[in-house]
Amino acid sequence: MRNLYMIYGVIVLGLLGMAEYRGWSLASVNEVKNVPRSVRDNPGSYRSVYAVYHHYTGGK
Amino acid sequence: MSTGGPNPPSTPHVKAMNCPSCGAALSLRSFTQAVSVVCDSCHSILDAQDPQLKILQQFKKATGEDPPLIPLGTRGRIRGTPYEAVGFQRRTIHVEGIPYSWHEYILFNPYKGFRYLTEYNGHWNDTSTLRALPTLNSHTGDVTVSYLGETYQHFQTAQASTTYVLGEFPWQVRVGEANEVTDYICPPRVLSSERSGNEVTWSMGEYIAGRDIWKAFSLPDGPPEPIGVYENQPSPFSTDTKTIWTIFGAFAIFLLLMMLGFASFARDEQAFQGAYIFDTNARSEASFVTDPFELKGRTSTLELSTTTNVDNNWIYLNYALINQDSGQAYDFGREVSYYHGYDQDGSWTEGSRNDSVAIPSVPPGTYFLRVEPESDSGHGTIHYEITAKRDVPQFSFFGIALLALLVPAALITWRSMNFEHLRWAESDHAPMESSSDGDDD
Amino acid sequence: MTQPAANCPNCGARILFRWSSSVQTVCEYCKSILVRTDVDLKKVGQVADLPPNSSPIQIGAEGVYNHHPFVAVGRIIYEYDQGTWNEWHLVMNNGSAWLSDAQDNYVVTFAAPGRKLPASAKVGEQYVWDNESYAVSTVTKAHYRGVEGELPFQYWDKEDVVFIDLMSEHGKFATLDYSDEAPVLYLGESVEFEDLKLKNLRTFEGW
């Protein structure tokens, strides 16, 4: 049992090290490829899935 | 020996005789060592040392059948020595009015003598009588007994009576006879003392799996399933619990060092900062792009922080981090809202004026941000500042890793404690809160 | 071992001695107890029927104790209130020893002369011999039940005899034998059956 735990712990710490080194995070981010350079001249032309947003009304 | 001779030393042979009570044939498998022998047919207990097989006790009433799981006459190897099952008995104790019975098998080898196997609810013990006496340690509180460097805890004292007998015994056996039996445990071993009159006999048992008995005696089918936890049943957890926590400690220290290491070696440098104003009433295109900025070093996080001055308002920012050269973009949205007020409970707040997110695994290169703000119209202007920091360590991961390491250790400890609780539930020292013995019937 | 031969004065059968220093032996054929004098063998008694014996050891059994090989050449059978036990006379290269055999409990002891011995002792009393502390564990009253084979002294038909057994913390064993007027001390230790590496044991039917 303790050998299993040791292997498990090494894996956990290994994953941790890899996550920290490779810059993982918990954020959900969409990767988009091949954004044309014209976006710099016309930012409005860029369409994102996140642009359509359900308004948060908030408050109590 | 001198040559020849009319009387070579006789080879002891299994004696065949007839029961004086019912005439049935019976044989003495243990040659001259049996003291009592029970007739299979009429269950009379006979004096095995008497050539006439004097009747010592008769079962007037039928005791019912209790067939031994190891049939008498079966041979098997225990610790490399062959033994034959020659006797069998059932012994019963009463705890709070409830009878509990276990079985004992008398094993015989003409060179090694007698050995015993006890069985209770599918738990087996390999037992033999002790020559040397264990030492009693009566400290105040728990009574313990020491033998060969091990300390045994008192488990149970009870009056054990013999309620069924079969075969041969190396002592005088009587149905109904009761002796005080005390068990002291040091799993996987147990020390039992049996007191009859002034005499005390000690024996030591070692827990043995039913599977091993079935293999040793080549018995058909399988052993009965063990029920509950037996007094000296070895815990599958005990030694591991301590070492696992030690290993956890080592891991925790290593984790701390990793955290310090990453915290100090991370760049954590500001790559970009910009301040903007969003006019909620403006009808023009809200999206814009920032100046390009450099992201250095290895592939790592980019922490994007948004600080605003929203007051009972919200702003939603659709961000895209775009690599100027490769055209790769990271697209996401962040909502910042802050509300506050006053009601009968006092003042309240909801949300925050600031937000922070870590974009994962951004390769080095030249980037710019495309920003598209959004809000309810008619709420004036919102001032906000965007800051991008390169290579920020994710401390939440350390917390998650610590939890991941903690959970199995805690789980194993919990299971071990549960096992021990079950063990002691059957003893004289059952823990208070349990509703007495977990009946294993 | 030299094996001087002689004839039984009672029945004429041939008697062979395994051990040159045997003082007494028993004729296998007529069960006469024979004592060796300078010249010949003299019959001094008769062995009655021996009790049923379940010991795996027999006369002629060989084994090893403490790297010394031995042969069991004789035995004395004692009887007490709980049954009987055997004292096997073992002969080794450098002398003789005793193997006590009781319900598969084996103890090897050697005669230890020239020590101060008590006239009697009670359970729990302590004595020191050869820098080892012994405590009295049992006091047994036994009587002679029979003899077999060769013995280093004369022994038969004795009255009740007291044996005092002592044990030390280190597994050493001692016996005070009060068969004669002056007590005799035997020192030794208990042994496991396997450690004796016995050969030429009795065979049991089916084993």
Summarize the helices and strands and which ones pair or pack.
The complex is a heterotrimer of chains A (60), B (441) and C (207).
Chain A lengths: L1 H21 L7 E3 L28
Chain B lengths: L14 E4 L6 E4 L7 E3 L6 E3 L7 E3 L17 E4 L2 E15 L2 E12 L3 E8 L2 E7 L5 E4 L4 E5 L2 E20 L8 E9 L2 E8 L2 E10 L1 H7 L21 H28 L3 E11 L8 E2 L3 E3 L4 E9 L4 E11 L5 E15 L2 E6 L2 E9 L2 E10 L6 E10 L4 H31 L16
Antiparallel strand pairs in B: 1-2, 3-4, 3-13, 4-5, 6-7, 7-8, 7-13, 8-9, 9-10, 10-16, 11-12, 12-13, 13-14, 14-15, 15-16, 17-26, 18-25, 19-25, 20-24, 20-26, 21-22, 21-25, 22-23
Chain C lengths: L4 E3 L6 E3 L7 E3 L5 E5 L4 E6 L15 E4 L2 E13 L2 E10 L2 E8 L2 E7 L14 E4 L2 E18 L11 E8 L3 E6 L6 E8 L16
Number of helices of chain C: 0
User: Uncertain spans of chain B, ≥5 residues at pLDDT below 50?
Assistant: 1-8, 434-441
The biggest beta sheet of chain B, please?
Answer: 8 strands, antiparallel, barrel
- Encode the helix/strand succession of chain B as letters: EEEEEEEEEEEEEEEEHHEEEEEEEEEEH
Short description:
Chain A has one helix at 2-22, and one strand at residues 30-32. Chain A is mainly alpha-helical and 60 residues long. Chain C is an all-beta fold and 207 residues long.
